[in-house]
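Researcher: I'd like a structural prediction for the single chain below. Treat it as a standalone chain; there are no partners to consider.
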Amino acid sequence: MSTTAHQARQASRRVARRAGRGDWVARAGRLGLVAKGVSYALIGILALQVAFGHRGQAVDRQGVLRQLASESWGPAALVALAVGFAGYALWRICDALFDRGGEGDDAAGLAKRAAAFGIGAVYIASAVAAVSLVVSSRPSAGGSGGNESAETARVLDWPAGRWIVLAVAAGFAGAGLVNIVGGVVRRFLKRLNRREMGPHVERWAVASGVLGHVARGVVFALVGAFLAKAAIDYDPAEAIGIDGALRKLVEQPAGPLLLGAVAGGLVAYALYCLVEARYRRT
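Model: Treating it as a single chain, here is the predicted structure.
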């Protein structure tokens, strides 16, 4: 009986592995990259509005979803984004579990696969948020993009909570550095099937990829810096998300210009996501 059960488990694993490596997962990933690009384009556009004086906008993904919920056509857009986010999450989780990207089982490969799993979890949360706004009877377009201070306060009260927040801060800062360096050295081109790209498309891919990754890296680095300050000072009010990071930019000297530049970079990243949706090796 135990041999039969073992064989059944092995067979089910093979079936799951074949399914996880199937073309349908790649198609879900491409759909997800389109949704990701749309969400970053909307974040960038809302951030540009803040740069030009519309201070009431919430400029993170949650704020974008609430903004869409307030429009007459919003529910259809939210459903489409939810499907896309779910597809992106499925692709990244299958990437983590079945090593679709060929990262391997060494320490570096497992770290990259773990990061892919974490990204998948984030996009599951985004899909759930979009669906919850569709079924909610009281969508709200106002308010901030999140309640990072309250969430950080809860974590700081945990045993070793300060170290947990510092670890999350380091993760954001590291992601910011990876995006900035990767954008400058054009590391993102390794993910694209350049043989299928003409020279015109490749120029757009390079320009949007460099600007987009650097802008995204700046935002992540700011989030990490303020989270670290919250942990060191034991002050949850210092914690910010993407919305707060963009607002911190506009408070600086020449702030609207800085925010406008970063917002433009986020729109460029959205364009790069659309290039990825077509030409990325999935």
